[in-house]
Amino acid sequence: MVVKKRTAASTTRAAAAASAKPHAGVGQLHATKNKAMKAKSKATPDIEIRASKDGQSNVLYIGHLPHGFFEKQMKEFFGQFGTVTNIRLSRSKKTAKSKGYAFLQFQSVEVASIAAEAMDGYHMFGQKLVVKTLKKEDVHPEIFNGANRVFKRIPWREIEAKRHNKERNGKEEKKRASRARRAAKMRTERIAAAGIDYVFSPDDEVSEAKKVEKTSKKAKKIEKIDTVDE
């Protein structure tokens, strides 16, 4: 009987395989994770990374992008050099705002090299572009995850104003007043700690907020009446 010795690598693989097996009671978690992975793979475009003899790929890094120079504008602008296959502008996950750099892929390595040479140091809307070709080994396999997507502006101010001005029931209004009193108390303590002799009642601030809210509601009702009359 031959006994095989377990190497460190085989032990690591066995541990990884064991951890990959779903445990009892977490089947739903694994199912959700698998769905997310499938969705992610669908969002990943098919990319073919080509390279020249010196190892430079057909993927460009573009930095110091000015505001307003987004996916559509980049595709139109760099499309003058040749066929653009993929663009991924780095954006904030919270606000979807541009982070000022992007990755762009041309169909041809030669075109990518010409575009990088022509556009590196190019001045655009007060910004000096940084355009470099990436080496093939530096191109991450998931570099174009979520590429070629159209982003819509999220009206954060309108959403917050709607949330702030929404009508509240008695319980919500009581909670809001309690929070306002607590904030006013902390403010009073900070003022006293700074050596300033100033006293005000938190209840006055809450009542003033209610007056402003009532006034705004009356104005809305009057506006509706005027609209009906017209």
Write the layout of secondary structure elements.
Blueprint (H helix, E strand, L loop, with lengths): L7 H13 L6 H17 L12 E8 L7 H8 L5 E8 L6 E9 L2 H11 L3 E2 L2 E2 L1 E6 L20 H10 L4 H24 L8 H28 L1
Antiparallel strand pairs: 1-3, 1-6, 2-3, 4-5
Q: What would you say this structure looks like, in words?
A:
It is a single chain. Helix 6 packs across helix 7 (202-229). Helices cover 48% and strands 15% of the residues. With 230 residues, the chain is α+β, with helices and mostly antiparallel strands. The chain has helices at residues 8-20, 27-43, 71-78, 109-119, 156-165, 170-193, 202-229, and strands spanning 56-63, 84-91, 98-106, 123-124, 127-128, 130-135. The longest helix is centred in the last third of the chain and has 28 residues, at 202-229.
- Indicate the mean pLDDT: 76
Share in β-strands: 15-25%
Major beta sheet summary: 4 strands, antiparallel
Number of continuous helical runs: 7
By secondary-structure content and strand pairing, the structural class works out as alpha+beta
In short:
The chain has seven helices and six strands, in the order H-H-E-H-E-E-H-E-E-E-H-H-H. It has 230 residues and is α+β, with helices and mostly antiparallel strands.
Provide the descriptors you would attach to this structure in a database record.
about 230 residues; alpha+beta; four-stranded antiparallel beta sheet; two-stranded antiparallel sheet; 6 strands; about 50% helix
